[in-house]
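Second opinion, please. Please look over this fold, written as tokens:

===
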Amino acid sequence: MEKSLRTIVIGADHRGLQLKDDVKRSLSEWGYLVDDRGAHTYDAEDDHPDAALAVGEKVREQEGGTGILVCGSGVGIAIAANKMAGIRAGMALTPEQAESARKDSDANILVLAADYLTAAQARRVAKAFLETAFQPKERYVRRLRKIKKMEQLRSSKS
């Protein structure tokens, strides 16, 4: 998909708000459309599962949907996002981790940790994630099938 036509869905909680806004500006500069699902203002009482749900739902709606989530540690928002069927959220602190998340695991949401990344580092990580494609090697495809079965098993027990 041509990046100038590609929409990136982005969201954060209060601890990730500033970094989200920094990354959002870069996405626009790089030619992406940005769907900002919030937070839009600082609210110390907001919760990262709400941001994960807002971004995850939009990512699932789009063929080849891609998102970026930001919270303080990155851990809580990643856990929340990965509870949604069809979401493969991976946290990355380095461009190499981001490339691996896409190439090996077909991650569709990048998670950034605002407490551990500068804006410049986060931009490099996001750029690596967005510019890397899934490599459909047999073992990676096999693993994704197993993950899909796990999602189905979980939903059938709900």
